[in-house]
Amino acid sequence: MTKLSVNINKIATLRNARGGNLPDLIQVAKDCERFGAQGITVHPRPDERHIRYEDVRNLKKIVTTEFNIEGYPSKDFIDLVFEVKPHQVTLVPDAPEAITSNNGWDTIKYREMLFEICQSFKKEGIRTSIFVNPDINMVRNAKLCGTDRIELYTESYAVNYPHNPKTAIEDYFNAAEEAIKQELGLNAGHDLNLLNLAYFAKNIPQLLEVSIGHALISDALYLGLEETIHRYLKELE
Ligand code: PXP
């Protein structure tokens, strides 16, 4: 069964818009878990425009499911992950000013750097995942970076799905096969939503986890958080 990890960055964005503590990020994380989410994901950025480093420390104290911290491995980020020791760290190559993650790692060019970082996290008992495009070569080389898992960047799937689901999933299907061949665990995320999630999960049965933020929080405005999480979980059944 594929786990649903809810990315709560957007809750922090909303809170930060007014400076107070509404909505309460900690309460939302607890409620996501109460409503059935099997994980909580955060993506702290250097400018702390949504999740703050302090949020990550506070979340660690209350998250009872899987805690996943994603981000670019700057020194501050690495120090934070060492301090907090989440279950999983997901490394993304995005520049600090990027609006959101917009590409996977070049696992050939950055192999040495990623290998060193993955080793140091693994020594601390933190599972590693690296964000990659659905490219067989990048997946194969991800193995040489010493990571436990990869997260497939699903933006192109989401863009192409409404036009032709079958062609939209093709590269992902092949990338997933390669990941299994390389004995890499498989996660996925970005732009997944209630329309495209079931088809992805059905066609990539090896999928261990999806992390979903933007669409899920947007759906919650209409459906409420509890109903929304139930609907996402149902898509993954
Ligand atoms: N995975 C990674 C690496 C991300 O950076 C993000 C966005 O923060 C997500 C998954 C979730 O994407 P979305 O908000 O579109 O669901």
Molecular structure report:
The mean pLDDT is 96. An eight-stranded parallel beta barrel has the order 1-2-3-4-5-6-7-8, surrounded by five helices. Helix 2 runs parallel beside helix 3 and helix 6 (136-144) runs parallel beside helix 8. The N and C termini lie close together (7 Å). The chain contains eleven helices and eight strands. It has helices at 9-18, 25-34, 53-62, 75-84, 111-123, 136-144, 155-160, 165-181, 197-203, 214-223, 225-235, and strands spanning 3-7, 39-42, 66-71, 88-91, 127-132, 149-153, 185-189, 209-212. Strand 3 (66-71), helix 4 and strand 4 form a beta-alpha-beta unit. It is an alpha/beta fold and 237 residues long. Helices cover 48% and strands 16% of the residues. 44% of the residues are buried. The protein is globular and about 45 Å long. Residues 7, 9, 43, 70, 90, 92, 100-101, 131, 151, 189-192, 211-215 line the site of pyridoxine-5'-phosphate.
Any chance you could write out the topology, listing elements then pairs?
Layout: E1 3-7, H1 9-18, H2 25-34, E2 39-42, H3 53-62, E3 66-71, H4 75-84, E4 88-91, H5 111-123, E5 127-132, H6 136-144, E6 149-153, H7 155-160, H8 165-181, E7 185-189, H9 197-203, E8 209-212, H10 214-223, H11 225-235
Helix pairs in contact: 2-3, 6-8, 10-11
